[in-house]
Amino acid sequence: MGFAAITDTSGNLPSEQVKKADLKVIAFPYFIDGREYTCLDTEQFDGDAFYAKIKSGMKVTTSQISPQQYADFFEPYLQQGQDVVFVAMSSGISGSCNSARIGAQMLLEQYPERKIEVVDTLGASLGEGLVALEAARLRDEGLEAGEAAARLRDLVQRMFNVFTVDDLMHLRRGGRLSNVAAIVGMVLNIKPLLKGNEEGKIVSFAKVRGRKKSIEELAARYDKLAVEPEKQTVGIAQAGCREDAAYLAQLLNRNRPPREILTVEYEPVTGSHVGPGALALFFASHNKVRSEN
User: Fold this and answer.
1) CATH number of the domain bearing residue 173
2) Is the distance from CB of 161 to CB of 280 less than 8 angstroms?
3) One domain for residues 10 and 107
4) How many domains does the chain have?
5) Are strands 190-196 and 202-209 parallel, antiparallel or unpaired?
6) Are 136 and 265 a contacting pair, CB within 8 Å?
7) Cα dist from 69 to 162, 247, 281, whole Å
8) Is residue 140 within 8 Å of 251, Cβ to Cβ?
9) For 83-157, where are the E strands, in sequence order?
């Protein structure tokens, strides 16, 4: 019966695309004033209002998904005779990937004939979501879970996650920025360039002067590093900065137009960590791209 392709809400995929690909999605919770929320339907998420409130001082906290929650989510598919391929947010920024592995191991003791493949994307937002879409495509091609997971792990090594933010405070507060020594004060209009490294951790690797220049530097990385862009769906994620996302898309189409550009708004969990004004780009390159500057 093949496998169920599963991901989580940090993959940032539009609800319509999730339905079309027949992806199953487990939701990360987030909390505002002690009240718990989830965002499974991106069409209902008002990103402009959410990021405006964060700018005004609203505090958002997040938490992991527990091993038992993963086990409870995976088990119905095993009961139906399906294997599971779970496409997870980076282990470099969250312990949830490891929780998924623990939940999977709990189940495999009960269902030894089944397979559960946990694929660590070493990314988030569309750095995860594009891998999840590929999982669904491989399922539809008829690949078994182990072979699909191997191909997805190869894609992970080639998926470049690069972005800029308006304020590093959000990443610092959440402990998501690894190379603290590289942090620069957001003064004199200096903007950082950040990426997901070989361990899936967020690191700052360059800084430029001015917002427009930071967007152009994202496009320059694409021009330099994208492999066969005409065959790719390239991802852009933005947190309350639609015009900047449109400008980035324009730059991508200038020299090496991709087959498709998927532009999304950062959903609340990942968005609360990168903060208003975050703009990210995701595309496939060569298998050592994570060590590139």
Assistant:
1) 3.30.1180.10
2) yes
3) yes
4) 2
5) antiparallel
6) no
7) 31, 40, 31
8) no
9) 83-88, 116-120
Secondary structure of residue 179 in the 3-state scheme: coil
Quick one: tokens of 2? 């093949």
Q: Last residue of a domain, which of 140, 157, 174?
A: 157
Tell me the backbone φ, ψ of residue 161, rounded to 5 degrees.
-110, 110
pLDDT tens digits along 46-75: 999 999 999 999 999 999 999 999 999 999
Phi-psi region for residue 134, left (φ > 0), alpha (ψ -120 to 50) or beta? alpha
39, 144: one domain? yes
pLDDT tens-digit profile of 14-38? 999 999 999 999 999 999 999 999 9
Q: How far apart are CA 234 and CA 257, in angstroms?
A: 10
Domain termination site, one of 157, 183, 217: 157
Which has the closest alpha carbon to 236: 137, 131, 126, 91?
126
Q: Which residue has the tokens 């779970």?
A: 86
Domain that includes residue 72, residue range: 3-157
Q: What is the pTM of this model?
A: 0.94
Co-location of 151 and 219 in the same domain: no
